[in-house]
Amino acid sequence: MTGPAAEGEEDDPAAGLAERKMRFLFALRSHGVTDARVLTAMERVDRGLFVRGVFSGRAYEDMPLPISCGQTISQPSVVGLMTQALRVGHRDTVLEVGTGSGYQAAILSQLARRVYTVDRWRRLVREAGDIFRSLGLVNVTAMTADGSFGLPDQAPFDRILVTAAAEDPPGPLMAQLKPGGIMVLPVGQSDHVQQLIRVTRTENGFDYEELRPVRFVPLVEGLGNE
Ligand code: SAH
Prior knowledge:
The protein has six helices and nine strands. The chain is of the alpha/beta class. It has helices at 17-30, 36-44, 76-86, 103-111, 122-135, 171-175, and strands at 65-66, 72-73, 93-97, 114-119, 140-144, 157-162, 177-187, 194-201, 206-214. The chain is globular. It has a domain at 78-214: Vaccinia Virus protein VP39 (Rossmann fold), CATH 3.40.50. The structure holds S-adenosyl-L-homocysteine (SAH).
């Protein structure tokens, strides 16, 4: 099912775990993840815990991988670049939309005071919550919700990270951003390459910056049935 990887992409099974993790960090740096706090967080959070089954052997490769409910854990260098673009401070309250495996939320938990992460699939939320508990990550809470409406009970947020693509930034998320707050999200049509953008809430409105092209699964309305 995994099929042969392109030359140079496949993890050398003979390489020890330590060496594979070292290559993982090297790949992050060479893709532009240079923020020391982000790199330290990514060194601490073991991606191998968030990938199950046949793909678990590829957890330290810089590629997205399938997880439950037909979703994907994002490519580590993209996780790093998005986290870096979010400029998370240690006193921040962060909302992540799209828990998926929980990997991105676990990294945010190293950098922020409080992290809320939501997904439309109960099963993903339960599995991610189990990992957070086993790691003793007490400042991250996973909940089942349609994240396009944000999380009104916990709003406003200093930072919002959306890891599924919408055609436009959802209005409720914009409204739940504090003044001076930052939201990073992919926008564009789901079957195309999308743009990763950074939205900053200013005194008078919002500033928008285009960061890079990315490809994410779509932000879908309503809850999943698992
Ligand atoms: N951040 C994840 C990867 C996200 S994949 C990780 O670190 O592994 C995108 C996720 O967004 C999927 O799990 C999908 O179920 C979720 N999603 C899509 N639309 C959503 C919505 N409206 N509300 C909440 N989650 C949504």
